[in-house]
Design brief:
about 270 residues; Rossmann fold; seven-stranded mixed sheet; two-stranded antiparallel ribbon; alpha/beta
């Protein structure tokens, strides 16, 4: 679909039918809608419409030069446009990491659009101004690598940061994941960090109490940082529960797809 002259690629994992619920998936940084393929296969038996978005700078979507197309207002506009064109009045919105931050911000702004919110390895951002500045500086180092190195060298660097150490044992799947990440636009990834990095996005802590729909928080037991974050925030929502998937790291749906799908459908 075209939004403000920007191509936003949508993936329909199955045939869109009017009389059944919908789940909309939002990927993480360097990801794409293809990252949810295996989850979509697991969930097809649930008889629901399954849709994914390639966010700007990722997958097959455009990588515009202007940072404004990567900031939260435009990202929310994308999600709103997709939901408006669906037959359902309310949807389940599922996001992972960066996509989870977007899903959370969307639900805070448009709570009436959400039937259920699923947040995997997600934080509401950084409330402390100093922490935000430190994160922006950390992202600047990542940006420098993106600007100075070929995309394959950046992808190898990114996939080997400590956050993703638990993925290394899934060698065959990891090779497939790497190939998908190589298709991303370097300038798109740079602009994504500049426009919607964790240090840049408006923190959402004050908005959690306004999300009245059921919220499912998912983290991996081996991802201690995000597990602790989610333990802290679960009580801030009116209706939320936190499920910890044993033996998984940051990317739960990649490492433990069957467990993720079972948790989502339960």
């Amino acid at each position: 679909m075209i939004i403000d002259n920007v191509n936003i690629e949508l993936t329909h994992y199955n045939e869109l039918k009017k009389d059944r619920p919908a789940i909309l998936f939002l990927h993480g940084f360097t990801g794409s809608a293809c990252d949810w393929n295996i989850i979509a296969e697991e969930l097809k038996k649930e008889d629901c419409n399954l849709i994914g978005i390639d966010l700007p700078g990722h997958g097959k979507s455009s990588s515009p030069d202007s940072i404004e197309y990567y900031r939260l207002p435009f990202l929310i506009k994308i999600v709103k446009s997709v939901i408006t064109n669906l037959p359902q009045q309310k949807i389940t919105l599922a996001g992972y990491s960066m996509g989870g931050r977007l899903a959370l911000a969307y639900a805070a702004q448009y709570p009436d659009d959400i039937f259920k919110l699923i947040l995997e390895s997600t934080s509401p951002g950084l409330a402390d101004p100093l922490e935000r500045l430190n994160r922006i500086e950390s992202d600047r180092k990542v940006i420098n690598i993106l600007e100075e190195k070929p995309i394959d060298e950046f992808v190898d660097y990114w996939m080997n940061i400590p956050l993703f150490a638990t993925q290394r044992k899934y060698k065959t799947k990891l090779m497939e994941l790497r190939e998908r990440k190589l298709l991303n636009s370097p300038i798109g990834l740079v602009n994504s960090l500049k426009g919607f990095g964790t240090g840049v996005m408006p923190p959402q802590y004050e908005n959690l109490k306004n999300i009245s729909s059921p919220v499912l928080l998912i983290t991996g037991s081996l991802d201690t940082k995000f597990t602790e974050i989610n333990k802290d925030i679960v009580s801030a929502f009116p209706d939320a529960r936190h499920i910890i998937i044993e033996g998984a790291g940051h990317n739960v749906h990649f490492e433990k797809p069957e467990e993720y799908a079972l948790t989502v459908s339960s």
